[in-house]
Amino acid sequence: MNTRIIAKLDVKPPYVVKPVHFEGLRKMGRASELAKKYYDQGADELFYIDIVSSLYRRDILFDDIEKVANELLIPFAAGGGVKSVEDFSRMFHMGADKVVINTYAVQENPGIINKAAEVFGNQAVVVNIEAKKWNSHWECYTDCGRIQSKIDVLEWTQEAEQRGAGEILLQSVDADGRCRGFDIELSEKVVNLVNIPVVVSSGAGSLEDIKTLVEVAKPDGVAIASLLHYDRATIQDIKQYLSIDNKQK
Amino acid sequence: MDNLIGIVNYGIAGNIHSVKKSIEKAGGSALVINIPSDFNLVDKVIIPGVGSFKDAMQELNNDGFIGPLKSFDKPILGICLGMQILAKLGLEYGRTNGLDLIDAEVKPIQCDGKVPHMGFNKIQVTKSCALLNEIEEEEFYFMHSYEVVNYTDIAALTEYRGHSFVSVICKDNLYGVQFHPEKSRDAGIKLLSNFINIKV
User: Fold this and answer.
1) Residue-by-residue DSSP string for A165-227
2) What element of type H or E holds B20?
3) Each residue's pLDDT tens digit, A138-184
4) pTM (2 decimals)?
5) For A46, nearest residue in chain B (alpha carbons)
6) Which of A135, B27, B86, B130 is the 20 to 30 Å CA partner of A222?
7) CATH says A4-241 is which class?
8) Which fold has domain B4-197?
9) What is the pLDDT of residue A58?
10) Which residues of A sit within 8 Å Cβ distance of B?
């Protein structure tokens, strides 16, 4: 099976914004319009993360999620501010196929992973890890890379798997938005550590960066944001570079 | 009113939204089934699937849908978990009885690859059936940790990291697909349009 090429939308509804190392936001376009654009380009999946929901402690804006879901005939993962099984349920009803969780599971109740996996099946539960490097280890961050947790990334990855997560979205607070390449070392460690799929994000600055990641760390998926948003590459370009057949619209 | 497709709305997990949208895109009309008597209004039924086996059966039971589903004699299409619960027995979170419409058990995928099996993958058609009309080696989107173990009603297989599992079943009026046609671009729409076009 080919590495999945996923378009990632970091959203401050209704706009896709581009944080640079999770700080400072630039508006890139409406989420529903960019979703359609990347779908037409041949994206295998789409990730939608409301990056301000946890931080502002405000309710999830389900309408915008539904609007994006309506544009797609590919899998759609949504997250940001998820705190309960009811939130998971509403996300699915709005058209999400997978729900992404980070802050609440790390800060308050990791048991939500178990509960959600039991109700919705583990394939529907994606644990988002925002990793920041400290000397020889990585630490989990929450609230879009702002809050330190003291939790070790590798330990948390294993715990998330044991609790029933069906997929890991691995993001790097250090590499995100800088377009200078992925944190390959961390990616390789996480991919090899667990038996569930790992989607790596944060850092693609060129097609070569993606190829290196795929060849060295062998993730199950790569989630791309800036490169697509700034039109520096299309999904076709990426798949062609990786010699993957593309099914466009 | 001919050829109305009912989509079973059960529990808190369902993704009926995308299934309904895809049916319309494939040229059909859909009705969401909310109460048991809705089964009388439709010509075909789709059981969508997001959730766990145990939860799904509990919800179908609470909604009073098990009887109408078991006696429905027109085409039924189960998608992912919706296919799995057609089986006799499920082994996700304990042992749970399924709808027992197909002689099969649902077990965890055993293979060298990562599980859940997630992503676009090919199917190899092993038996022709109306559902797979003009579909050969297409790619569809899979997202599952369990597989249907069945030997008698296989219509297509899929290989994942050296392991071959059942990806499509058909038996009389029953059809099941392990993948998500509603998430599989044009190939999925083609399969759904085949289902819409099955003569009742």
Assistant:
1) -SEEEEEETTTTTT-S---HHHHHHHHHH-SS-EEEES---SHHHHHHHHHHT--SEEEE-HH
2) helix B16-25
3) 999 998 888 999 999 999 999 999 999 999 999 999 998 888 999 99
4) 0.93
5) B183
6) A135
7) alpha beta
8) Rossmann fold (3.40.50)
9) 82
10) 1-2, 4, 44, 66, 69-70, 72-76, 85-86, 89, 92-98, 117-124, 166-167, 194-198, 220-221, 247, 249
